[in-house]
Specification:
Pfam families: DUF1679
CATH topology: Aminoglycoside 3'-phosphotransferase, Chain: A, domain 2
Strand order of the largest sheet: 1-4
Protein name: CHK kinase-like domain-containing protein
Structural class: mainly alpha
Order of helices and strands: HHHHHEEEEHHHH
Number of helices: 9
InterPro entries: CHK_kinase-like, Dhs-27, Kinase-like_dom_sf, Oxido-Kinase-like_Enzymes
CATH class: Alpha Beta
Length: 169
């Protein structure tokens, strides 16, 4: 999650810069700004995933979007590599999917895709298939728990996108 991989000092500096922006950006942010930089917020998000939904943390890329994906030239539907790993952390398993969705899909289409639930279903099916291939047990959580964890990841990623506003001013 955003707060796990970015220092509190950096987040504080970003919030200070956000507070210097237009009032229409600043006003809504005042309600959440002091919450997102506190370690308790990150701890709360982590505990919700593990304790409330039974979804353990995993290694996440942390900055998954189209520019950090490399594809084979001779087969553009085949992924060659993930690059740019400096934000990698142990966290919410939906961090990367939510980041990719927020960074690359138009809001209306993203909401439609989320409502259909196909991505989470595909994720869970492929994860369980791979675990069985490796001789391991399937995960103990289902789509409903994964949806809750995805919702937490979307909140975290949305806050992260707000924190990036000063980079584009």
């Amino acid at each position: 999650m955003w707060g796990q991989s970015v220092s509190e000092e950096f987040s504080s500096a970003m919030i200070e810069q956000i507070m210097e922006l237009d009032e229409d950006i600043v006003e809504p942010f005042k309600k959440i700004g002091n919450i997102v930089i506190k370690p308790d917020f990150v701890k709360w998000m982590k505990e919700k995933c593990e304790n409330d939904y039974g979804v353990p943390e995993i290694l996440t890329h942390g900055d998954l979007w189209n520019n950090n994906l490399l594809w084979y030239n001779n087969n553009p539907s085949r992924l060659a590599a993930f690059i740019d790993w400096q934000l990698a952390t142990i966290g919410n398993p939906m961090t990367d999917i939510s980041r990719l969705m927020l960074a690359t899909v138009e809001p209306d289409l993203r909401r439609k895709i989320e409502k259909e639930g196909k991505i989470l279903e595909l994720y869970l099916n492929e994860l369980n298939k791979k675990l069985v291939e490796l001789g391991m047990e399937k995960v103990k959580y289902g789509i409903e728990e994964l949806q809750h964890v995805y919702n937490l990841a979307i909140i975290s990623q949305a806050i992260g996108r707000v924190m990036e506003i000063p980079f584009f001013e």
